[in-house]
Amino acid sequence: MILSARNLHWSAGGVDIVRNVSLDIRPGEFLGIVGPNGSGKTSLMSLLCGIRKPGQGEVALDGKAIQSLSRRDVARSIAFVEQQAETQERIDARQAVELGRTPHIGALTPWSAQDDAIVDQALRDVDAGHLAKRMWHTLSGGERQRLHIARALAQKPNILLLDEPTNHLDIGHQIALLHLVRKQRLTVAAALHDLNHAAMFCDRVAVMKGGELVALGPPSSIFTAALIGDVFGVEVLVERGEGDICHIRYQPPRDKDFIPRISDE
Asked: Which residues, given as ranges, of the chain have pLDDT below 50?
């Protein structure tokens, strides 16, 4: 299943947020979408899942315009985890994950033992089985984020879209979560802040700047000191290992006007 974007434009308040973005998310790949704050990553994710309608251009799912499909049909193929997804309902953690089964439940397909098994597995996958009976409002931000991922996995999508999925997670759970996502037999696109996470887990990266797609390809070829300096405004050293492995080392800012005072004390 291929998710495609063609010449996407989207504006808000008279300001262009996404401009002329075209890309294909290939079956089975992990695509990282990176860029500084305000570069259009979150807006692009919303367009890709059909939550927002582009001002120009089109998003297509296996060649069919996503705006022509019902929300239920889209939800059976695409799961989207928003950066600030939240619920005000008084439900427990397991009930929150069970919401992922909604697109598959109907009058002719009531809840079954298979649905229970899928929810149980999703909770285990994100190391949240012990949270199942906890009320939602008692959970930390990191715990809630892991459960949002579990809800998306319970949806059993072909394509998983994640907007900053590692927000609120400690480093151990960040790595574990991305490793988990990488192992799923899914097509994945994730907006990521950490370039080293993108280099470690992604097959390709799409680099956004000012609402435009400025680079697209394998991390080892896309992540250069020149590109990172231009897009993010930071100085880095890019170390390259065997195969397609690369690691980004950030350098401290150079303040030409600052002269350190050396003391003999």
From this structure: 262-265
